[in-house]
Amino acid sequence: MKPVSPATQAIFKHKITKYLVEDEVVMNWGVLKKCILMLALGCGIHVSWLIWDIFVLLNPQYWQYVDTSIVRQQVSTNSIFLLILIFLIYPCYKFRNNLQVERYLPFFAIGIFVFSLCRDAYVVGVVSPVSMIAYVSLVTVGLVLFPRVLVYSMLIPASIFLTVCGYLSYTNQLAYAPVFTIEEKLFFNGFWLASMFYFILPILAICLVLFEILLSQWRHREKLIQHLSQIDPLTNLFNRRSINQCLDALNNQTPESYALVLLDLDHFKKINDHYGHDKGDETLIRVSHVLTQLLRESDVVGRFGGEEFILVLKNSNLEKARQVAERCRAAIQQIEIFSDEGERIPVTASFGIALSSPNLRPQQLLSQADKALYQAKACGRNLVKAYNQSFENSTQLHPDSA
Q1: Torsion-angle region of 44 (φ positive above 0: left; ψ -120 to 50: alpha; else: beta)
Q2: Exposure class string for 149-183: b at 16+ Cβ within 10 A, else e
Q3: What would the pLDDT profile of 114-145 be if each residue is shown by its tens digit?
């Protein structure tokens, strides 16, 4: 069986990461898939209502606190809403990949869900703890999960309905909390308090769980974005921005000397032009693997440009840096990459070394390593050169780094 190339492995790994890390995040679900989540939440709320209705009807000692005719009506109403919400889950699942259905079905599904909750809010009191907590929690979750146009198209009529019901109740034109017959001292009535707690608990628990999931995934995605901003996506090495931050940290924190090694792949443009960019990408990936394997854990390796890499060798002197660079140069030269026709593609690199000193800023050190690298290329490539003062006065023309 033909082995899978590192480039193919990198692409496959990227796709798997995208699926596991991005597509399975709740915030990245499609609108209809999120609708299923909210419909399931609505089903849970109506089931809890039905349990309360049946419990009250089966216990006559609580009839003095409720209007039993409304409670019986609630059994039918909550059952109907429960069946409707269950029924709506199927088209949301069936057409979750249909863009045309996805545009309109959420308004209907979430609309039924919100309407059913508004009616229940009227029955127990529009300014009761249950209604207020449900209103705030569900609106907050909705704004996180759904487009604003969907949330506000439901929020505005629901707010108007609850405001009108509150006003009519205040002016005695409409019964307030008609399911209860408790006229005063609600907070001193054990049955009312227990009922409020019972209605609040499932809504609050489910919304808190959703908040925790969404917050955890948001934090994870922020860490992923931060990681991706520091890493070169092809080679999985530090990018130029991360290397610059590393150099600034070393310059400000450590008194020990460190070596900077710049390396550039020789005639890399020819690899892309003659063998294709996929072979060029494979070359970069293979080189990055070699560099990573040959360095210490305390050292830093990054991709500094197109075909240019950088090594930061901590607590190192010039002789140690030269030895490391020579090992890397020899290992790169031994990399075996073949064209589609089976022809071996030669891979070599030129190296430039510069050693830190207290009076050198990171950019000056980079400039010295760059001059040493150009000197290595000018002397025939596939060489290691360390910076010395004579390079400053060199009139050698800038070599072609392709």
Answers
A1: alpha
A2: ebbebbbeebeebbeebbeebeeeeeebbbbbeee
A3: 999 999 999 998 888 888 888 888 888 888 88
Q: DSSP of 364-399, one letter per residue?
A: HHHHHHHHHHHHHHHTTSS-EEE--GGGGG--PPPP
How many other CB atoms are found less than 10 A from the CB of residue 129? 16
CATH of 240-393, one of 3.40.640.10, 3.40.50.720, 1.10.3720.10, 3.30.70.270: 3.30.70.270
Identity (one letter) of the amino acid at 144? V
Q: What percent of the chain has pLDDT over 70?
A: 88
Match 């349990």 to its residue by tokens: 51
Question: In the chain, which segments carry CATH 3.30.70.270?
Answer: 240-393
DSSP secondary-structure letter at 186?
G
Q: Which of 37, 21, 25 is nearest to 142 (CA)?
A: 37
Please tell me the pTM assigned to this model: 0.61
Question: What would you measure as the largest C-alpha separation in the chain, in angstroms?
Answer: 103
